[in-house]
Amino acid sequence: MTALVWYRNDLRTLFHSPLSAALKNHESVKALYILSEGQWDIHDVAPVRRWYVLHSLRELGQSLAAMGVTLDVVVANTFSEVGAQLERYVIANKITTIYCNREYPLNEIQRDRDVATRLSALDVSIQGFDDGMVVPPKVLKTNQGGHYTIFTPYKRKWLQYLIDEPQQSFKVSSTGADKSTASFSCEVLDNAIRNNVVPEALTRHWTPGESAAQSMLASFIESRKIEGYQQQRDFPAIDGTSMLSTALSAGTISAHQCVQMAKQCSGVSEAQQGVQTWISELCWRDFYRQVMANHSRLAKGEPFRPETRFIQWSRDVGEFNTWCEGRTGYPLVDAAMRQLVATGWMHNRLRMVVAMFLTKQLFIDWRWGETFFMRHLIDGDFAANNGGWQWSASTGTDAVPYFRVFNPVRQGQRFDPDGVFIKQWVPELAHLSKKFIHEPWKSPESVSDYPTPIVSLVGVKENVERAFRAARDLAKTELI
Ligand SMILES: Cc1cc2nc3c(=O)[nH]c(=O)nc-3n(C[C@H](O)[C@H](O)[C@H](O)COP(=O)(O)OP(=O)(O)OC[C@H]3O[C@@H](n4cnc5c(N)ncnc54)[C@H](O)[C@@H]3O)c2cc1C
């Protein structure tokens, strides 16, 4: 009677309900990760994210070994092969029950339906959990019984839920065995790591695995960085955010644990605002996940607001490439894009600025930007990325109104006033004073190796309004 913990985007041992339940209910427990690199290709998963996942798996294998649980890694190139592969594994290892965390995007749901059908024929039961979110996706309902599409009332209900139904502090801990001496070796994983070549210049910014994620959380809370979060989180030159998005999206840390630890320090009055704002960001993460879970068409590239399907986006490849390469002539946009390509990560304020620049100033289809982000982000997360892009493009649920357009110059003056961040990533402008760093074209000093702006900021709002109005008119006739 062996139980199986099927790992997906939850590569940890702590705060992990499936592992907890399996160890509680069964004497013999195995763990499995199904490596689907072909699916990663289909989902545009960035090489640096693959690197993070593969190396995190290695640490997971070792931690599990110390608990007496063997982690196997098998290959099923795409999700369509997962069912058959799992079936073989279950039969070979006499598995009676599978424990796993649910995933909410459409392809993952279809994969799990296929698995459920095959395994029920073998009399193998599956127990699903929702550790991927703080509050499971179907639990919170509006007064009319629907799912939330507006953040503020969702957050109100979400916070109330945390008070009414405090999460149990499930915490699987080591069985006492020494992790450093526990041995884990896996040829499949070694091969995958060898074949996934990522430049050291990119990976040196990151440490994969659960232990590093735990240390980052502890340092964010214990160094009291969280207290200043509310004031500092919008300034990209300041190390003012948790940097936990990679760990959260690969599941090397649990969002439950983040909320629990943050709440523990919210008793300190000066910490209150920082803690509340940070918990609010974790709520945004849940919000977009429940939107994804309840509106599967989002996984088909559709905008949330149907009328915005009719927008005639620009398909200017030249301008798009300029944006990708950080050569738009707008320093904050360029610095941000270069940070993304060089490190696999971008500050949240900048994600909004560059996404809005692409979709409003250049009026290029948000899906192009969404894909480019996925191909580079180490924290690439379908729901958060799609949510962030549709927010910026004004096509999404509870999105920024289409007539609100960020001005990249003013955003720079406000959130990088001295140009410290810009100078780090756009060294061609390092000699400019604070007065000209955001508008180098006005500088009397030479900036000959930096491009002039590819697009004017004048008339952008009017152009966007016109295009959205035209789409709305078209939708009136087409959607009847
Ligand atoms: C266009 C766009 C694309 C984005 N793509 C992604 C993505 O692929 N993966 C991703 O994890 N986040 C994405 N975000 C959200 C946000 O930018 C990152 O989560 C954040 O910058 C990560 O930094 P941090 O861990 O220091 O966050 P903190 O400020 O410390 O926040 C804590 C956690 O809350 C969550 N969070 C914060 N802001 C958001 C948000 N707006 N939406 C959803 N969750 C949030 C993240 O899990 C984050 O780690 C995107 C935002 C935009 C505007």
Question: How is this structure best described in words?
Answer:
- By secondary structure, the protein is of the alpha/beta class.
- The longest helix has 23 residues.
- The chain has a five-stranded parallel sheet, sandwiched between helices.
- Helix 5 links the parallel strand 4 and strand 5.
- The model has no long low-confidence stretch (mean pLDDT 94).
- The chain has three domains: 130 residues, HUPs (Rossmann fold, 3-Layer(aba) Sandwich); 125 residues, Serine Threonine Protein Phosphatase 5, Tetratricopeptide repeat; 173 residues, Orthogonal Bundle (DNA Cyclobutane Dipyrimidine Photolyase, subunit A, domain 3), CATH 1.10.579.
- It is globular, with a radius of gyration of 23 Å.
- It contains 21 helices and five strands.
- Helix 16 crosses helix 18.
- The site of flavin-adenine dinucleotide has 28 residues, from helix 11, helix 13, helix 16 and helix 18.
